[in-house]
């Protein structure tokens, strides 16, 4: 089992027992509102489906999500991971429960996942992005060394509409970052 330990956090693959806490954290609309694939309202069934999908993706090597826990009390506070996009490019994504925003946890978790991806999976090219009205996420990406490359439009399931997203790269071509946003599509299209 992959486990990452940083100064304040422990990151591990998702487990079925995480469903209740994930559901609880996702009850603040601001979380799914700023994610591409999460629905709103967010139910226990949504968490269970994501956990089952995560196990499949880990096994296939196509996506490596981690649950973020506080070292001090083992409390689940969010998730961070990478998804295979194309060739040797991976997309970084993350979310934290709102009570944990502004404390540097997502930067610490994302840096740890990027280091793990380089060391364990040989990854070196990454892309990421954030919805335009969530600039705090852009500050995190820039702290990590991502560079902004432009804007793209993609579907956000919780909002049920297309939104503008700022796109970023780290050692990857801008056109991949700009084009990858299209993998967030309205269901049925």
Describe the structure.
Helices cover 33% and strands 32% of the residues. With 189 residues, it is an alpha+beta fold. The chain has a single domain (4-183), classed as Gcn5-related N-acetyltransferase (GNAT) (Aminopeptidase). It has an eight-stranded mixed beta sheet, with helices on both faces. Helix 1 packs across helix 3 and helix 4 (105-121) crosses helix 5. The N and C termini lie far apart (36 Å). The model has no long low-confidence stretch (mean pLDDT 94).
Number of domains: 1
CATH architectural group? 3-Layer(aba) Sandwich
CATH class: Alpha Beta
* Average pLDDT over all residues: 94
Structural class call reads alpha+beta
What oligomerization state is this entry in? single chain
CA distance, first residue to last residue: 36 Å
How would you concisely characterize the structure shown here?
This protein has 189 residues and is an alpha+beta fold.
Jot down its keywords.
189 residues; alpha+beta; Aminopeptidase; eight-stranded mixed sheet
Question: Topology, pairings included?
Answer:
Elements: E1 4-5, E2 9-12, H1 19-25, H2 30-33, H3 44-60, E3 63-70, E4 76-86, E5 89-96, H4 105-121, E6 125-131, H5 135-144, E7 147-156, E8 161-170, H6 174-180
Parallel strand pairs: 5-6
Antiparallel strand pairs: 1-2, 2-3, 3-4, 4-5, 6-8, 7-8
Helix pairs in contact: 1-3, 4-5
